[in-house]
Amino acid sequence: MNFIERPKQISVGVLALQGAFQEHIHMLQSIPKVSSILPVRTAEQLRSIDALIIPGGESTTIALVAEHSGIWENLKEFVRQKPTWGTCAGMILLANEANNTKKGGQKLLGGLDIKVNRNQFGSQIDSFESLLHIPQITSSPEDPFPAVFIRAPTISTINSLEVEILAKLGHNVDETDASTVVAVKQGHLLATSFHPELTNDNRIHKYFVEHAINYIVSGQNGKKEISLKDGNQNTQKPT
Ligand SMILES: NC(=O)CC[C@H](N)C(=O)O
């Protein structure tokens, strides 16, 4: 049996094609378990990191720039194998399906068995903050996470039992009710429809780094097509 030593630190990349990547980089600087932080624009940079954050911004633009710069297929491969967290536009890109996409559709990296509704809360001026209790992250409802929503998507459908709901909206917002799911996890993938990098609260960044380390220790990092359903995750040959 192969034991994988628990890494004390990992390197985290932030996709830096468009959007709020600088804010994520800044936030990661406050986390001791992050050894290096890399703005990612090339396939080579992607190969050198343990985990990736896809920031908020404009999902159609990020997809277009990624395609034109030739990194799209590498990104697709990365998110299937390695810990990745998508915030807002990043969550849209990690979804298997999206509503309200532009004519001609939108390219998605996929990986999360969810369907998202883009711009569910309206335009930029409809941005809002909501205090969320996220049991895996906030210690009690009295110490909620200040979630910032900007032209945010919501999760309209969850298509797999492997998708774990981490957070629901705390109150009704327009046509969206308080049971709307705004943060999920599935295996090595994490997604939030809000922007933790725009707060002074690094708890979700810390959570992602711990989650990535656990995933690496579990030996699944970089191994493709692992199905937890049929319990074959321990059958890989030791390398
Ligand atoms: N803040 C954001 O990332 C907004 C996401 C944007 N509305 C999109 O569809 O991609």
TrEMBL record:
Glycosyltransferase as UniProt keyword: no
GO MF annotations, alphabetized: glutaminase activity; lyase activity
Enzyme Commission number(s) from the entry: 3.5.1.2
Broadest EC class assigned to this enzyme: hydrolase
UniProt-annotated catalytic positions: C88 (nucleophile), H195 (charge relay system), E197 (charge relay system)
InterPro entries: Class_I_gatase-like, PdxT/SNO, PdxT/SNO_CS
Residues reported to bind L-glutamine: G57, E58, S59, R118, I150, R151
GO cellular component terms, semicolon-separated: cytosol; glutaminase complex
Domain of life: Eukaryota
Sequence similarity: Belongs to the glutaminase PdxT/SNO family.
Name this polypeptide is given: glutaminase
Source organism (scientific name): Diversispora epigaea
